[in-house]
Design brief:
Layout: E1 2-6, H1 7-17, E2 32-47, E3 51-71, H2 72-81, E4 87-93, E5 96-101, E6 104-109, E7 124-131, H3 132-140, E8 157-164, E9 166-172, E10 176-183, E11 189-197, H4 198-207, E12 214-220, E13 223-227, E14 231-236, E15 255-260, H5 261-272, E16 281-287, E17 290-296, E18 302-308, E19 316-321, H6 322-331, E20 336-341, E21 348-352, E22 355-362
Helix pairs in contact: 1-2, 5-6
Amino acid sequence: MDFKVTRSELIAALQRVIGVVEKRQTLPILSNVLIQIVGEILSVTGTDLEVELIGRCHLEESANDTEITLPGRKLMDICRSLPDDALVHFKLSGEKVTVKSGKSRFVLAALSAKDFPNVEEGSGMVEFSIAQSAFHDVMDKTHFAMAQQDVRYYLNGLLMEFDGAQVRAIATDGHRLAMCYEEIAGLSLEKAQIIIPRKGVLELLKLLDNRDDTIYVVVGKNHLRITSETFTFVTKLIEGKFPDYNKVLPKGGNKLLSMDKNVLKQSLTRVSILSNEKFRGVRVLLGENSFRIQANNPEQEEAEEELPVEYSGETLDIGFNVSYLIDVLGTISSDEVKLTFLDANSSVILEGTNQDNATYIVMPMRL
């Protein structure tokens, strides 16, 4: 193995995979990245046995096809320490790889590529191409509502649905729900559901961006694979039955109002300062052209703000976890938010006034 690559190319590939490479592993090889060369393409692979990430870059010149594994974090730290315009030269000798750049020289211990594990994939049930930006959008607007370490393991991930021309993402932790879809012209997908684990979702969001570059998606029974020109992402899926989210969507809401999203978010943030630190509860009092937010805590401290709204329906007194409301408002891209209430025991629906592909549900809480 003998090849040269620019620091900028190599560090870009490493950054795509380093998130799944741990410093301390029960299996030493999982601390390494797999370096593979085919012609002028260098591939860097990292895995934790659940998620596999592959970053690709171009060599300065074609090299012999080869593969070896090197310590991931150490290689990343070496690259970061080099000058921006550095050229990095790798050479294998026995079980060691010498890394040279300018007058710097490093010798790293290598492990055989034969022992590097692969995430099993299997055949695909659904396959399609989609713009990065569209796939990123549905995940970005919903992932915050995923559960963390819930005993209902199927909630610790993101439900993705494929149906006809629609790609939908749904997340819930049992207290709130986020749902978003994209309509993709020309798609005609078989109906399918998968649950992407939390770590896979977070790593995929780092890889995807808002560019319109095309990615190729393969949905298998036990895995999801996404490929672009610069990376390949593979994750195992959560086995289990996601709850029927249609059953929890509130129906019949008759108290509708719209307000400035940022004004509401700032008011909630201020009032929350004096909410109970443990339960984070605030009271919303809806009346004639009035929207009041109140909070108090065990120290008998209180906060209140009143916002003018156009409303002339029945009065309402309802409590919410303020953090859930602020999370939703931080995700909605519209300047105005529409709220739909039914009664004090029913969830509120929040939607952006010009963002009709995303819906958010927040359950009430007793104060």
